[in-house]
Amino acid sequence: MNHIEKIGKILGIGVNLLFILFPSIPEIYQWIIFGIILVLVGIPHGGIDHLIHNPTIKKSELFNFIIKYLFLIVIYSIIWLYLPKIALLIFILMSSYHFGQSHFIQRILPKKFTSLSISLRGLFFLFIILLGSWERTKTILSPVIILELDINYRLGILICLALVSIGLQLAQRVKMTVSDFLEYLVLAPILYFSPLFISFIVYFGFWHALPSMLEEYRVLRTFTAYNSVKKFIVQLLPFSFISLFGIGLILFFALSYLDENEVFMLFFALVSLISFPHILYMDAFLKKNYQY
Ligand SMILES: CC1=C(/C=C/C(C)=C/C=C/C(C)=C/C=O)C(C)(C)CCC1
């Protein structure tokens, strides 16, 4: 594991522990940490999708790329508008696959059942976060779906997901590494007991966005145009800024019309819109660079 990734993960665990041990920390600090991680790694890791798609992309190709990207966003927005429950289900499924992939970066996986195995790992961690703070998750989801799950049911789901995801990995003869064990035995309970937005942003930032960004850099640095950290960061800036500005602007106007839960739900729906094309390009990028 890259040492920057290791530092990020240790920092992330520290932040979670702080909020578990001191539950009276004012909520504003959760928002500050959420905002910092989102701006520094969360959004930027998707800001160079055009380069991971084609590192030597020309101006005219970039134009086509943007049109395709926007087209995918528009299609998914229509699904959110007319079939919000289906859109939410798609969001959960594609996020599970996408998050799961970052647990297997640079690992050789067999072809059979790999997408399922990856998705189960991602789904387990996503559900640890969502079911661990079920009351909060339930209220945020209420503009789209009303769901009741009692504690036994929630724990049952999590135990089944852990067993099935580990079982499938072993059946595929993919070695359970020390990191895998630590993720199931240490990270999962910590995420479960942390407040929703802290556990989500720490997992998203340090178990997904940062490792993905480091992988993007590892591949792109072989091209002279991006062979230093500074050049790489400069490339991340334009689309990261546009995404943040766009999401910020929409939320700013929505604030006067929507209640708190609707604003949260809208925020995640907007994240899902920019994630949809990103997940497709990232999948092609990772598959090109590994054996699965
Ligand atoms: C945390 C959270 C949710 C899920 C968020 C997800 C699934 C985010 C995925 C982001 C991705 C895939 C980013 C891409 O890089 C819900 C269920 C919407 C509502 C409750 C709070």
UniProtKB/TrEMBL annotation:
Q: Which residues cross the membrane?
A: 7-25, 31-48, 69-93, 113-131, 151-170, 190-211, 232-258, 264-286
The kind of enzyme this is, by top-level EC class, is oxidoreductase
Q: Name one Pfam family in it.
A: BCD
Q: Does the keyword Cell membrane apply?
A: yes
Q: Which InterPro entries match?
A: Blh_diox (IPR022270)
| Needed co-factor(s) | Fe(2+)
Question: Is Transmembrane helix one of the keywords?
Answer: yes
Q: Which UniProt keywords apply?
A: Cell membrane, Dioxygenase, Iron, Membrane, Metal-binding, Oxidoreductase, Transmembrane, Transmembrane helix
Question: Chief localization class?
Answer: membrane
Membrane topology of the entry:
Multi-pass membrane protein
> Which family, according to UniProt?
Belongs to the Brp/Blh beta-carotene diooxygenase family.
Function per UniProt: Catalyzes the cleavage of beta-carotene at its central double bond (15,15') to yield two molecules of all-trans-retinal.
Extract the NCBIfam families matched here: blh_monoox (TIGR03753)
Q: Output this protein's name.
A: Probable beta-carotene 15,15'-dioxygenase
Q: Which organism is it from?
A: Algoriphagus aquatilis
